[in-house]
Design brief:
It is a single chain. The chain is α+β, with helices and mostly antiparallel strands and about 150 residues long. The chain is about 25% helix and about 35% strand. It has three helices and nine strands, in the order H-H-E-E-E-E-E-E-E-E-H-E. The strands form two sheets. Strands 3-2-1-9-4 form a five-stranded mixed beta sheet, covered by helices on one side. A hairpin with a 2-residue loop joins strand 2 and strand 3 (about 55-60).
Length: about 150
């Protein structure tokens, strides 16, 4: 447990330092597209790299058999600290980072289903991880973030 918390603090500190460099213009050309979130549908994992360095790896839930998660490379289009799905009975979608129409990376309260397909096509994360991802995208900006979804 202590190792996990220490590693998380180190990763967040590293991400914040790189973000500060962006804000103050240091190495700005090199920092472009500095966050890449790679989602593997077959492995049900999202790996986040900051400035090319692997920083986080989190279990996800993507679309189930009846609901496809789109594949490809996307940029975030909008962000909401709390969003309620208009399509699925006002289902809560905390820390939503939308990347294609109504598809988003967001928190879920169904954490026991992480690691297996269970969503209506969105990429679901543990609430703590979704908050961290949201903060990274907010810090670096959507233009410097890529969400890549592969089979």
């Amino acid at each position: 447990m202590h190792t996990t918390i220490s590693a998380k603090l180190i990763n967040i500190t590293f991400a914040a330092l790189v973000g500060s460099a962006l804000l103050f213009g240091a190495n700005a050309a090199h920092a472009a597209n500095s966050i890449v979130a790679r989602v593997s549908l077959s492995q049900q994992v999202m790996e986040v790299s900051v400035d090319g360095r692997p920083t986080f790896a989190w279990k996800v839930s993507t679309g189930d058999r009846a609901h496809v998660t789109p594949t490809g490379s996307f940029k975030p289009t909008r962000m909401h600290e709390m969003w309620y799905s208009k399509k699925y009975d006002n289902a809560p979608m905390p820390h939503s980072v939308f990347f294609s129409g109504g598809y988003a990376v967001h928190a879920t309260y169904a954490i026991k289903r992480l690691g297996q397909p269970a969503s209506h096509g969105c990429v679901r994360l543990h609430p703590d991880n979704a908050a961290d991802f949201y903060q990274l995208v907010e810090t670096f900006g959507p233009a410097n973030t890529s969400i890549v979804i592969v089979k």
